[in-house]
Amino acid sequence: MSAHALILAGADADRGWRLRDYAARGGYESLRRIVAEKTSPDAIIAELKASGLRGRGGAGFPTGLKWSFMPRAFPGDKYLVCNSDEGEPGTFKDRDILRYNPHAVIEGMIVGAWVMGCTRGYNYIHGEIFEIYRRFEEALEEARAAGLLGPNILGSDFSFELFAHHGYGAYVCGEETALLESLEGKKGQPRFKPPFPASYGLYGKPTTINNTETFASVPFILKMGGEAFLGLGKPNNGGSKIFSVSGHVNRPGNYELNLGTPFPELLEMAGGVRDGRKLKAVIPGGSSSPVLPADVIMDCTLDFDAIGKAGSMLGSGAVIVMDETACMVRALERLSYFYHEESCGQCTPCREGTGWLYRVVRRIEEGLGRPDDLDLLRSVAGNIAGRTICALGDAAAGPVQSFIKHFTDEFIYHIEYRKCLVPLAVQDAGNQINASRPC
Amino acid sequence: MLSQESLQQIDREIAKYPPGRKQSAIMSALRIAQVEKGWLPKDVIEFVAAYLGMPPMAAYEVATFYNMYDLEPIGRHKITVCTNLPCALSGGVHVAEYLKRRLGIGFNETTPDGRFTLKEGECMGACGDAPVLLHNNHHMCSFMTMDKIDSLLAELESQ
User: Fold this and answer.
1) A270: how many CB neighbours lie within 10 A of its CB?
2) By CA distance, what is A324's nearest residue in B?
3) Which of A32, A128, A179, B49 is the most exposed place for a label (fewest CB within 10 A)?
4) CB-CB: which of B85, B129, B131 is closest to A89?
5) C-alpha to C-alpha distance for A241 and A1, rounded to whole angstroms
6) Pairing state of beta strands B77-82 and A301-302?
7) How far is it, in rounded angstroms, from Cα B63 to Cα B57?
8) Do A439 and B143 touch (CB under 8 A)?
9) How far is Cα of residue A218 from the mean position of the Cα atoms in its chain?
10) Chain B contacts of A252, Cβ < 8 Å?
11) Using CB atoms, which residue from A127, A167, A247 is nearest to B86?
């Protein structure tokens, strides 16, 4: 997958995911050392802080700091949850991590349980990847049989139980408190924060939630050392990161790169823009992150700080590439439909606003746009952003604001001439099935 | 109401959660019930709620919130096509149009022989495999082309 692969090393086929394969790659060595040496939780947290590891699910919060928030001395159950509810359009890295290297996630979670004193953990897996859920359950069985999970792990007095839980079709459950509600067997509607999960989480108990890739990074950090991991990336943006590339490229897929790698290198690894066409725009961090025009993204390095400075977000590392055949109004219509469909309905600005956004973008796309529609979209988006319990409201508003900002002319053309600036035949040529790439 | 095998599967799910937290198994339990029954009639949802010791309303809330549960009878083969942006950029919309033509139905419709139901799905987290579709919720078909759709339909028709 890449010259810098850690998590996806050797992950190029449906072989190599079993415990014996992971162990042959040095898997579970970190855990064995920790248990044998009784490494102190503080030492592990210090290592994570030194590594510069930031949450890989989208928010980029420093992992060492998050782990330090857990009240270790709190009596009774404490929970550890892995967020594999990956449903943000463009993001598909956790699926491959769980498919090719599930034991890295399991080892990372066991280490987390050791550090935070958690007795029980769950991996919440996106419902649509049910085959991966089954595989993860098999991996858990292997770990249990090897004494790596369950009571008295590796003969110590440390015990930790880990289970798989699946979603069944709700994007909002990728939001951590909605995920907790769902784990409790309820509708996935986000909770108001504070209190944060570290004090009031699953079943009201202290809980830490991390993304799949974050957990999977932990064993590698402990093996190579925090400083070395940091050195792969750049200051404040430690390590390697998996980028999911989709859309108009010749070789869509996951590519693991060191943070700070220039964007053109990733584009080249993904085979370049499909059929040699010209790059138009890139959504760099999943559908919720603001779109960037070609000239801006081509000058960016891929890390939290650089993409942030360019006016977008690294997010989950989901890179959606659009070439010159893409109609930006049509692209936004697809995204707006998604947020409208997936709003959980709890907060009025999001529940009602996403419907307005979708209907107005759709009428522009259908040639029925009105002269003041762009102002209306800006107003509705502005009235959603920052006014909802969870970030899904901002996520719905962001694309609308950024598409209109960077591609104003295309939207105005649509309204004035009642058709796409990019002729339909050209769009179809770019989006055909049976396109030239090998399947 | 449910077979012994389904109940055993549900029991295995319940065992994943702490004592007194059976409700956490509702998503799996409804999934298991749906696989057995084909869809989720009201009395099945109520049965599952009672089995887990939760109010029926709480189970309806779950069944109606998550979109992979089917609350109406559907065809033997449910095909859910992703038309979200990354899939649309790679032909997802054409896949949906082709399926509509082949099956002679629109979204949320079932063929008169009760074989196929077509649904429009949201992001399935597999955009690198675009265009993708799901067969009966649990089997993902990647990199779809017209040829692959033809052979999938032929295979399902012969079942």
Assistant:
1) 25
2) B89
3) A32
4) B85
5) 12
6) unpaired
7) 10
8) yes
9) 17
10) 90, 127-130
11) A247
Q: Where does residue A327 rank: exposed (0-12), middle (13-18), buried (19+ CB within 10 A)?
A: buried
Helices (H) and strands (E) in chain B, counts: 7, 5
What's the whole-model pTM score?
0.95
Separation CA A72–CA A117 (nearest Å): 6
User: Which chain B residue is nearest to residue A185, measuring alpha carbons?
Assistant: B24
Chain B residues closer than 8 Å to A269 by CB: none
Position A238 scores a pLDDT of 82
Three-state DSSP state, B30: helix
List the domains of chain B with CATH numbers: 4-65 (1.10.10.1590), 77-157 (3.40.30.10)
ipTM of the complex: 0.97
Q: What is the mean pLDDT of chain B?
A: 96
Rounded to a whole number, what is the distance in angstroms from the first to the last CA of chain A? 17
Q: Tell me the torsion sign for CA atoms B45, B47, B48, B50.
A: positive
B85, A334 Cβ separation under 8 angstroms: yes
> Is the pLDDT at B56 greater than 60, yes or no?
yes
pLDDT of residue A73: 84
What average pLDDT does the segment A7-12 reach?
76
Whole-angstrom distance, CA of residue A251 vs CA of residue B143: 12
Q: Which two tokens stand for residue A294?
A: 């070609």
Residue A89, φ and ψ in degrees, nearest 5: -50, 125
3-state secondary structure A340-377: HHHCCCCCHHHHHHHHHHHHHHHHHHCCCCCCCHHHHH
Beta bridge partners of B118: B79, B109
**Nearest CB neighbour to B127, from listed A89, A130, A168:** A89
The two three-digit tokens of residue B23, written as one number:
């409700």
Lookup result for tokens 């049509």? A330
Note whether B36 and B1 are within 8 A (CB): no
